C-alpha cells in the first residue's frame, strides 16, 4: 500500500481510503450484509489501509456504528477516522445544512458515541452552510480541538473562496472533493490546495461504480438510488460516452493483467494534489482487488492516453 505524508496534519495516510457511504445500505447503493461489511473493513486494514471515512448522515449513524464494531479488538489503533457534521435528512426528503455552534457540539458527541472512540482524527464540515457565519462554525471547531475531541480540521465541497474565508478563523488541514476520471471539475482547486498545504481526499473516485467496468449496459436502478440522485453517470448520454472510455481502460488493464477499477484508482491517486482516494468497498474480495492497484502504476503515456480519451468524449467536467 502506498502512503502519502500530509503537509499540515503531519501524518501518513494510505492512498486508498475506505469510504463507507455505501455501507449505510437503504437506497444508497443497494443492500449490504453487515457481517460481510465488517470483514471488508478489517481486511482493508490488514492490507495496509489506515484511513476510514464516514458521516452520521450515512444511514443516520448506522455507518459510524458499523465501523465501531469493525474496529473492536485492536483495529482502532491502526486507523485514522474521518467523519463529518452539518448535513442531515429532512422530513421532506431533502438535506438541510446546519453548521451552527450548537450543532457542531451536539454532532461531535453523537459521532464519538457512535464510533466508540475518544477522538476523531479528521472532522469535516460536510457542506457549506450559507446561513451560519463561518466564524461561528470555526469557533466551535477550535474549541473541540483544544479539548482534544478532534485532531484535524477539514472542509468538504467548499470553494476556494469559502476555504480562504474559513482560514481567517482557523487552519484548514484537509479538504474533500468529488474527483475522478469522469469528474474533474475540481482539478484546479485540488492543485491550489496542495500548493497551499491543504491535502485533498477525493470521493466518487470510481464514479459511483461506473469506472469499475462492471456496468456495460444501463442497470435497473431503484428510485432513490444514489447513483441516479446524486451522480449522473448512469444517465444518457453520459453513460454511453463513458463506455467508450472504458474500452481504452480495458486495453490498459489487460497490459497490466489488472482490473479496470485498478486503472481508475491509479489515475486518481497519481493525479497532482490527490493524497488519498475514497473507495466504497463492502466485500473483502473488492477490498483485495482495489488494494492490488498499488502493486503497479500507470506510465506517463498511459495517463496521457486516458486523458485524451476523456477529452474526446467531453465527459471530464
From TrEMBL:
Any single Pfam family the record assigns to this protein: Aldo_ket_red
Keyword Nucleus: no
Keyword field: Oxidoreductase
Molecular function GO terms recorded: oxidoreductase activity
GO cellular component terms listed in the entry, alphabetical order: cytosol
InterPro entries, alphabetized: AKR (IPR020471), AKR_Detox_Biosynth (IPR050523), Aldo/ket_reductase_CS (IPR018170), NAD(P)_OxRdtase_dom_sf (IPR036812), NADP_OxRdtase_dom (IPR023210)
Annotated ranges, domain NADP-dependent oxidoreductase: 16-309
Name listed for the protein in its UniProt record: Aldo/keto reductase
Organism: Holdemania massiliensis
